[in-house]
């Protein structure tokens, strides 16, 4: 997947962010997006290939893998990163709408033109609400995905051995997860980074409300 567009989005949003927002962008870009691209994808690249069960019953390994890995960490993180950056795009669209509106007013009024938005990127009026709602949405997305990870993978950790007795397995079989310790380290790292981002979003929302 090409994440270059997300890097460009984060750089553009940085112009209209507060100090807390810039810290959040740095965390998302360095500690979440970069870690995801550079390391996490490779760690989970062999999760199905090296998921071994001590049986040769056809279909048993696939069924057990699907049971213990209902959704891949990588795909969940990718969806989470997409959803958590989309609200920032709404802020950019709102600023672009203001700039386009100013241009239409200038063309229509000519020499009598007076700017309605001297600084289109200043967080006042509707843009203030758009920015605030984007913060709440981003924090909500991260909290929801933390809950999803917790439900799918108890305590955000993977065991070394899991026991499976689902059909067509002939009996209770032991299945071994590839590199569980390394996966647990990256999972906990991403969880901690997500929690910090949630706190920053809430602090920034409080700052905006207090400043207004």
From TrEMBL:
InterPro entries: Connexin, Connexin_CCC, Connexin_CS, Connexin_N, Connexin_N_sf
Connexin N-terminal domain location: 42-75
Swiss-Prot/TrEMBL keywords: Cell junction, Cell membrane, Gap junction, Membrane, Transmembrane, Transmembrane helix
Subcellular location, principal: other
Pfam family, one: Connexin
Lineage: superkingdom: Eukaryota
GO cellular component terms, A-Z: connexin complex
BP terms from Gene Ontology: cell-cell signaling
Membrane topology: Multi-pass membrane protein
Domain (Connexin cysteine-rich) ranges: 141-208
Role noted for this protein: One gap junction consists of a cluster of closely packed pairs of transmembrane channels, the connexons, through which materials of low MW diffuse from one cell to a neighboring cell.
Subunit structure: A connexon is composed of a hexamer of connexins.
Record protein name field: Gap junction protein
The species this protein was found in: Ploceus nigricollis
Gene for this chain: Gjb5
């Amino acid at each position: 997947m090409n994440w270059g567009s997300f890097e460009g989005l984060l750089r553009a949003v940085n112009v209209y962010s507060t100090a807390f927002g810039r810290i959040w962008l740095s965390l998302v870009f360095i500690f979440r997006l970069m870690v995801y691209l550079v390391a996490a994808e490779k760690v989970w690249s062999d999760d199905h290939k090296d998921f071994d069960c001590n049986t040769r019953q056809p279909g048993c390994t696939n069924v057990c893998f699907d049971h213990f890995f209902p959704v891949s960490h990588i795909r969940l993180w990718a969806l989470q990163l997409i959803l958590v950056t989309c609200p920032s795009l709404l802020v950019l669209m709102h600023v672009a709408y203001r700039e386009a509106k100013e241009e239409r007013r200038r063309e229509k009024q000519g020499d009598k033109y007076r700017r309605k938005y001297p600084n289109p990127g200043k967080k006042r009026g509707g843009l203030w609400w758009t920015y605030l709602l984007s913060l709440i949405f981003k924090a909500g997305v991260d909290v929801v995905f933390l809950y999803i990870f917790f439900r799918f993978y108890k305590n955000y950790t993977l065991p070394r051995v899991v026991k499976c007795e689902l059909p067509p397995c002939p009996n209770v079989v032991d299945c071994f997860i590839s590199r569980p310790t390394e996966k647990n380290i990256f999972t906990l790292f991403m969880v901690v980074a997500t929690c910090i981002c949630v706190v920053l979003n809430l602090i920034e929302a409080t700052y905006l409300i207090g400043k207004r």
